Amino acid sequence: MSVKLKKSNSANKLQKRIRRETGKAIADFNMIEDGDKIMVCLSGGKDSYALLDTLMYLQSVAPIKFDLIAVNLDQKQPGFPEDILPRYLSELGVDFNIIEEDTYAIVKEKIPEGKTTCSLCSRLRRGILYRVAQELGATKIALGHHRDDILETLFLNMFYGGKLKSMPPKLVSDDGNNVVIRPLAYCKETDLAKYANHMDFPIIPCNLCGSQENLQRKNIKMMLQDWQSRFPGRIESMFTALQNVTPSHLLDNSLFNFMALNANDHEVLNQIEGDTAFDPIDISPIFEDETTLKRQDKIDTTSVSIIELK
Ligand code: SF4
Protein backbone atom coordinates (compact mmCIF):
# COMPACT_ATOMS: atom_id res chain seq x y z
CA MET A 1 0.00 0.00 0.00
CA SER A 2 1.40 3.43 -0.82
CA VAL A 3 1.95 5.84 2.02
CA LYS A 4 -0.82 8.37 2.55
CA LEU A 5 1.23 11.46 3.34
CA LYS A 6 -0.90 14.60 3.22
CA LYS A 7 0.92 16.54 0.52
CA SER A 8 2.62 19.72 1.56
CA ASN A 9 6.17 20.98 1.49
CA SER A 10 6.52 20.84 5.23
CA ALA A 11 5.11 17.28 5.37
CA ASN A 12 7.57 16.15 2.71
CA LYS A 13 10.48 17.77 4.53
CA LEU A 14 9.39 16.20 7.79
CA GLN A 15 9.16 12.75 6.22
CA LYS A 16 12.59 13.14 4.66
CA ARG A 17 14.07 14.29 7.97
CA ILE A 18 12.63 11.33 9.90
CA ARG A 19 13.85 8.91 7.23
CA ARG A 20 17.30 10.51 7.14
CA GLU A 21 17.70 10.52 10.94
CA THR A 22 16.49 6.93 11.19
CA GLY A 23 18.86 5.80 8.45
CA LYS A 24 21.73 7.58 10.18
CA ALA A 25 21.00 5.99 13.57
CA ILE A 26 20.76 2.56 11.93
CA ALA A 27 24.13 3.09 10.23
CA ASP A 28 25.86 4.69 13.24
CA PHE A 29 25.03 1.76 15.50
CA ASN A 30 24.97 -1.02 12.90
CA MET A 31 21.40 -1.80 13.89
CA ILE A 32 20.37 -3.73 10.79
CA GLU A 33 22.45 -6.24 8.83
CA ASP A 34 21.92 -8.22 5.68
CA GLY A 35 19.53 -11.12 6.31
CA ASP A 36 18.03 -9.72 9.50
CA LYS A 37 14.44 -10.42 10.41
CA ILE A 38 13.21 -7.44 12.39
CA MET A 39 10.27 -7.77 14.73
CA VAL A 40 8.75 -4.28 14.89
CA CYS A 41 6.82 -3.76 18.12
CA LEU A 42 3.65 -1.87 17.36
CA SER A 43 1.73 -0.51 20.33
CA GLY A 44 -0.67 1.62 18.33
CA GLY A 45 1.00 4.82 19.53
CA LYS A 46 2.39 7.51 17.19
CA ASP A 47 6.02 6.47 17.60
CA SER A 48 5.56 2.81 16.73
CA TYR A 49 3.52 3.68 13.62
CA ALA A 50 6.26 6.06 12.48
CA LEU A 51 8.85 3.37 13.17
CA LEU A 52 7.10 0.76 11.03
CA ASP A 53 6.39 3.24 8.24
CA THR A 54 10.01 4.42 8.14
CA LEU A 55 11.50 0.93 8.32
CA MET A 56 9.26 -0.15 5.43
CA TYR A 57 10.54 2.74 3.37
CA LEU A 58 14.18 2.02 4.24
CA GLN A 59 13.63 -1.66 3.42
CA SER A 60 12.49 -0.65 -0.07
CA VAL A 61 15.62 1.44 -0.77
CA ALA A 62 18.36 -0.25 1.29
CA PRO A 63 21.20 -2.02 -0.51
CA ILE A 64 20.81 -4.93 1.92
CA LYS A 65 17.91 -7.36 2.35
CA PHE A 66 16.03 -7.64 5.58
CA ASP A 67 12.53 -8.75 6.58
CA LEU A 68 10.01 -6.97 8.77
CA ILE A 69 7.27 -8.43 10.87
CA ALA A 70 5.00 -6.17 12.90
CA VAL A 71 3.92 -7.51 16.27
CA ASN A 72 1.26 -6.12 18.52
CA LEU A 73 0.60 -7.42 22.00
CA ASP A 74 -3.09 -7.24 22.84
CA GLN A 75 -2.91 -7.06 26.64
CA LYS A 76 -6.68 -7.35 26.99
CA GLN A 77 -7.13 -3.90 28.38
CA PRO A 78 -10.80 -2.93 28.57
CA GLY A 79 -11.93 -1.19 25.41
CA PHE A 80 -8.89 -2.18 23.32
CA PRO A 81 -10.04 -1.74 19.71
CA GLU A 82 -9.03 -5.18 18.37
CA ASP A 83 -9.92 -4.46 14.76
CA ILE A 84 -7.75 -1.34 14.17
CA LEU A 85 -4.29 -2.84 13.86
CA PRO A 86 -5.19 -5.97 11.83
CA ARG A 87 -7.06 -3.78 9.36
CA TYR A 88 -4.26 -1.20 9.12
CA LEU A 89 -1.52 -3.81 8.78
CA SER A 90 -3.43 -5.87 6.20
CA GLU A 91 -3.93 -2.75 4.09
CA LEU A 92 -0.25 -1.92 4.47
CA GLY A 93 0.67 -5.38 3.18
CA VAL A 94 3.25 -6.07 5.89
CA ASP A 95 3.59 -9.42 7.69
CA PHE A 96 2.13 -9.15 11.16
CA ASN A 97 1.21 -11.07 14.24
CA ILE A 98 -1.23 -10.06 16.97
CA ILE A 99 -0.39 -11.75 20.25
CA GLU A 100 -3.17 -12.04 22.80
CA GLU A 101 -2.08 -12.30 26.44
CA ASP A 102 -4.19 -11.12 29.33
CA THR A 103 -1.49 -9.27 31.25
CA TYR A 104 -4.16 -6.77 32.32
CA ALA A 105 -5.81 -9.40 34.54
CA ILE A 106 -2.45 -10.40 36.08
CA VAL A 107 -1.55 -6.80 36.83
CA LYS A 108 -4.97 -6.10 38.35
CA GLU A 109 -4.71 -9.19 40.52
CA LYS A 110 -1.15 -8.54 41.75
CA ILE A 111 -1.07 -4.76 42.22
CA PRO A 112 -3.26 -3.17 44.91
CA GLU A 113 -5.79 -0.59 43.71
CA GLY A 114 -4.31 2.90 43.41
CA LYS A 115 -0.68 1.69 43.05
CA THR A 116 1.15 2.18 39.78
CA THR A 117 0.95 -0.84 37.51
CA CYS A 118 3.43 0.10 34.79
CA SER A 119 6.47 -1.64 36.17
CA LEU A 120 4.90 -5.13 36.38
CA CYS A 121 2.98 -4.56 33.15
CA SER A 122 6.10 -3.65 31.19
CA ARG A 123 8.07 -6.56 32.67
CA LEU A 124 5.36 -8.97 31.56
CA ARG A 125 5.17 -7.35 28.14
CA ARG A 126 8.94 -7.50 27.70
CA GLY A 127 9.07 -11.20 28.57
CA ILE A 128 6.29 -12.00 26.11
CA LEU A 129 7.90 -9.99 23.31
CA TYR A 130 11.27 -11.69 23.84
CA ARG A 131 9.57 -15.08 23.69
CA VAL A 132 7.63 -14.17 20.56
CA ALA A 133 10.80 -12.92 18.86
CA GLN A 134 12.37 -16.32 19.42
CA GLU A 135 9.28 -18.13 18.13
CA LEU A 136 9.22 -15.98 15.01
CA GLY A 137 12.94 -16.42 14.40
CA ALA A 138 13.48 -12.66 14.60
CA THR A 139 17.10 -11.55 14.81
CA LYS A 140 16.29 -8.04 16.09
CA ILE A 141 13.47 -6.40 18.04
CA ALA A 142 12.78 -2.79 17.01
CA LEU A 143 11.23 -0.37 19.52
CA GLY A 144 9.86 3.11 18.84
CA HIS A 145 11.77 5.09 21.47
CA HIS A 146 13.02 8.46 20.27
CA ARG A 147 15.54 11.16 21.22
CA ASP A 148 13.32 12.68 23.92
CA ASP A 149 12.67 9.29 25.56
CA ILE A 150 16.45 8.85 25.69
CA LEU A 151 17.04 12.23 27.34
CA GLU A 152 14.16 11.78 29.79
CA THR A 153 15.59 8.41 30.81
CA LEU A 154 19.00 9.99 31.34
CA PHE A 155 17.54 12.49 33.81
CA LEU A 156 15.29 9.90 35.48
CA ASN A 157 18.36 7.77 36.14
CA MET A 158 20.35 10.73 37.43
CA PHE A 159 17.58 12.17 39.61
CA TYR A 160 16.12 8.98 41.01
CA GLY A 161 18.68 6.24 40.37
CA GLY A 162 22.04 7.92 41.00
CA LYS A 163 23.31 6.68 37.64
CA LEU A 164 24.62 8.33 34.52
CA LYS A 165 22.74 6.03 32.22
CA SER A 166 20.22 6.36 29.45
CA MET A 167 18.43 4.15 26.93
CA PRO A 168 20.86 2.56 24.47
CA PRO A 169 20.17 2.60 20.74
CA LYS A 170 21.13 -1.08 20.61
CA LEU A 171 21.42 -3.65 23.35
CA VAL A 172 21.31 -7.34 24.08
CA SER A 173 18.08 -8.25 25.88
CA ASP A 174 18.03 -9.31 29.54
CA ASP A 175 17.65 -12.97 28.54
CA GLY A 176 20.71 -12.70 26.28
CA ASN A 177 18.83 -14.09 23.27
CA ASN A 178 17.70 -10.96 21.46
CA VAL A 179 19.16 -7.76 20.12
CA VAL A 180 16.92 -4.77 20.76
CA ILE A 181 17.27 -1.73 18.48
CA ARG A 182 15.86 1.80 18.63
CA PRO A 183 16.02 3.15 15.08
CA LEU A 184 14.21 6.41 16.01
CA ALA A 185 16.95 7.32 18.50
CA TYR A 186 17.79 10.54 16.60
CA CYS A 187 14.18 11.61 15.94
CA LYS A 188 12.45 14.36 17.91
CA GLU A 189 9.17 13.51 19.57
CA THR A 190 7.54 16.66 18.16
CA ASP A 191 8.48 15.55 14.63
CA LEU A 192 6.95 12.12 15.22
CA ALA A 193 3.76 13.67 16.58
CA LYS A 194 3.45 15.95 13.54
CA TYR A 195 4.20 13.04 11.24
CA ALA A 196 1.50 10.88 12.84
CA ASN A 197 -0.91 13.70 12.20
CA HIS A 198 0.13 14.09 8.55
CA MET A 199 -0.13 10.36 8.02
CA ASP A 200 -3.47 9.93 9.83
CA PHE A 201 -2.15 6.94 11.73
CA PRO A 202 -5.04 5.20 13.55
CA ILE A 203 -3.73 5.94 17.04
CA ILE A 204 -4.87 3.70 19.88
CA PRO A 205 -4.99 5.62 23.18
CA CYS A 206 -2.40 4.50 25.70
CA ASN A 207 -4.50 5.00 28.83
CA LEU A 208 -6.92 2.12 28.35
CA CYS A 209 -5.45 0.34 31.35
CA GLY A 210 -6.54 3.27 33.53
CA SER A 211 -3.04 3.62 34.99
CA GLN A 212 -1.75 7.05 35.99
CA GLU A 213 0.89 8.52 33.75
CA ASN A 214 4.39 8.12 35.16
CA LEU A 215 4.58 11.36 37.13
CA GLN A 216 8.36 11.47 37.40
CA ARG A 217 8.79 11.08 33.64
CA LYS A 218 6.11 13.69 33.06
CA ASN A 219 7.93 16.16 35.31
CA ILE A 220 11.24 15.54 33.54
CA LYS A 221 9.53 16.06 30.19
CA MET A 222 8.16 19.41 31.41
CA MET A 223 11.60 20.40 32.74
CA LEU A 224 13.23 19.65 29.38
CA GLN A 225 10.51 21.50 27.46
CA ASP A 226 10.92 24.50 29.74
CA TRP A 227 14.70 24.51 29.21
CA GLN A 228 14.29 24.21 25.47
CA SER A 229 11.91 27.15 25.31
CA ARG A 230 14.16 29.37 27.44
CA PHE A 231 17.48 28.17 25.99
CA PRO A 232 16.90 27.02 22.41
CA GLY A 233 19.41 24.39 21.40
CA ARG A 234 19.87 22.96 24.88
CA ILE A 235 18.19 19.64 24.03
CA GLU A 236 20.42 19.24 20.99
CA SER A 237 23.48 20.07 23.07
CA MET A 238 22.57 17.53 25.75
CA PHE A 239 21.89 14.87 23.15
CA THR A 240 25.24 15.57 21.49
CA ALA A 241 26.86 15.24 24.91
CA LEU A 242 25.60 11.66 25.11
CA GLN A 243 27.70 10.89 22.06
CA ASN A 244 30.71 12.74 23.40
CA VAL A 245 31.64 11.22 26.74
CA THR A 246 35.00 11.87 28.42
CA PRO A 247 35.48 9.21 31.13
CA SER A 248 38.69 10.88 32.35
CA HIS A 249 36.58 13.90 33.33
CA LEU A 250 33.95 12.04 35.27
CA LEU A 251 34.38 10.24 38.58
CA ASP A 252 33.88 6.58 37.72
CA ASN A 253 36.97 4.55 38.62
CA SER A 254 35.68 1.62 36.62
CA LEU A 255 35.69 3.65 33.39
CA PHE A 256 38.97 5.45 33.91
CA ASN A 257 41.91 4.25 35.94
CA PHE A 258 42.52 7.25 38.21
CA MET A 259 44.61 5.03 40.50
CA ALA A 260 47.26 4.63 37.85
CA LEU A 261 47.28 8.31 36.85
CA ASN A 262 50.75 9.86 37.15
CA ALA A 263 52.56 12.87 35.78
CA ASN A 264 54.61 12.13 32.68
CA ASP A 265 52.64 8.99 31.87
CA HIS A 266 52.44 9.69 28.15
CA GLU A 267 50.26 6.72 27.36
CA VAL A 268 47.56 8.02 29.71
CA LEU A 269 48.07 11.66 28.71
CA ASN A 270 47.29 10.70 25.12
CA GLN A 271 43.91 9.32 26.20
CA ILE A 272 42.67 12.32 28.14
CA GLU A 273 41.73 15.83 27.13
CA GLY A 274 43.76 17.62 29.76
CA ASP A 275 42.47 19.98 32.40
CA THR A 276 40.65 22.94 30.91
CA ALA A 277 39.42 24.20 34.28
CA PHE A 278 41.51 27.37 34.04
CA ASP A 279 41.01 27.97 30.33
CA PRO A 280 38.27 30.04 28.75
CA ILE A 281 35.78 27.66 27.20
CA ASP A 282 34.26 28.14 23.83
CA ILE A 283 30.47 27.88 23.76
CA SER A 284 28.54 28.36 20.60
CA PRO A 285 25.85 31.07 21.10
CA ILE A 286 23.19 28.62 19.93
CA PHE A 287 23.45 26.85 23.26
CA GLU A 288 23.16 29.88 25.53
CA ASP A 289 21.54 33.27 25.82
CA GLU A 290 22.91 35.28 22.90
CA THR A 291 22.48 38.69 24.56
CA THR A 292 24.61 37.61 27.48
CA LEU A 293 27.25 36.25 25.15
CA LYS A 294 27.40 39.46 23.11
CA ARG A 295 28.51 41.30 26.26
CA GLN A 296 31.42 38.91 26.69
CA ASP A 297 34.15 37.94 24.31
CA LYS A 298 34.95 34.89 26.31
CA ILE A 299 33.23 33.15 29.14
CA ASP A 300 35.06 31.35 31.84
CA THR A 301 33.65 28.44 33.80
CA THR A 302 32.40 30.70 36.62
CA SER A 303 30.32 32.88 34.33
CA VAL A 304 28.73 29.80 32.74
CA SER A 305 27.47 28.81 36.19
CA ILE A 306 26.03 32.30 36.65
CA ILE A 307 24.18 32.08 33.34
CA GLU A 308 22.81 28.71 34.40
CA LEU A 309 21.48 30.14 37.66
CA LYS A 310 19.61 33.07 36.12
S1 SF4 B 1 0.29 2.65 31.03
FE1 SF4 B 1 -0.90 0.77 31.30
S2 SF4 B 1 -0.38 -0.48 29.52
FE2 SF4 B 1 1.18 1.09 29.69
S3 SF4 B 1 2.80 0.15 30.92
FE3 SF4 B 1 1.48 1.25 32.34
S4 SF4 B 1 0.05 -0.28 33.04
FE4 SF4 B 1 0.96 -1.08 31.17
TrEMBL record:
| GO process terms (BP) | tRNA thio-modification
Q: Give the residue ranges of motif PP-loop motif.
A: 43-48
Q: Name one GO molecular function term.
A: tRNA binding
Top-level taxonomic group: Bacteria
The record's cofactor note says:
Binds 1 [4Fe-4S] cluster per subunit. The cluster is chelated by three Cys residues, the fourth Fe has a free coordination site that may bind a sulfur atom transferred from the persulfide of IscS.
| InterPro entries for the chain | Rossmann-like_a/b/a_fold, TilS/TtcA_N, tRNA_Cyd_32_2_STrfase
Summarize the subunit comment: Homodimer.
Q: What does this protein do?
A: Catalyzes the ATP-dependent 2-thiolation of cytidine in position 32 of tRNA, to form 2-thiocytidine (s(2)C32). The sulfur atoms are provided by the cysteine/cysteine desulfurase (IscS) system.
Catalytic activity reads: cytidine(32) in tRNA + S-sulfanyl-L-cysteinyl-[cysteine desulfurase] + AH2 + ATP = 2-thiocytidine(32) in tRNA + L-cysteinyl-[cysteine desulfurase] + A + AMP + diphosphate + H(+)
**What are the GO cellular component annotations?**
cytoplasm
Tell me which species this is from: Agaribacter marinus
Enzyme Commission designation: 2.8.1.-
Is Iron-sulfur included in the keywords of this UniProt record?
A: yes
Q: Where in the cell is it found?
A: Cytoplasm
The tRNA(Ile)-lysidine/2-thiocytidine synthase N-terminal domain sits at 37-200
Binding positions for [4Fe-4S] cluster per the UniProt entry: C118, C121, C209
Pfam families from the UniProt entry: ATP_bind_3
Q: Transmembrane residues, as ranges?
A: none
Further comment found in the protein's record: The thiolation reaction likely consists of two steps: a first activation step by ATP to form an adenylated intermediate of the target base of tRNA, and a second nucleophilic substitution step of the sulfur (S) atom supplied by the hydrosulfide attached to the Fe-S cluster.
**Keywords, sorted A to Z:** 4Fe-4S, ATP-binding, Cytoplasm, Iron, Iron-sulfur, Magnesium, Metal-binding, Nucleotide-binding, RNA-binding, Transferase, tRNA processing, tRNA-binding
Q: What is this protein called?
A: tRNA-cytidine(32) 2-sulfurtransferase
SUPFAM superfamilies per record? Adenine nucleotide alpha hydrolases-like
- Name what cofactor the protein needs: Mg(2+); [4Fe-4S] cluster
Q: Which family does it belong to?
A: Belongs to the TtcA family.
Which pathway does the UniProt entry assign to this protein? tRNA modification
**Stretches of the chain forming a coiled coil according to its record:** none
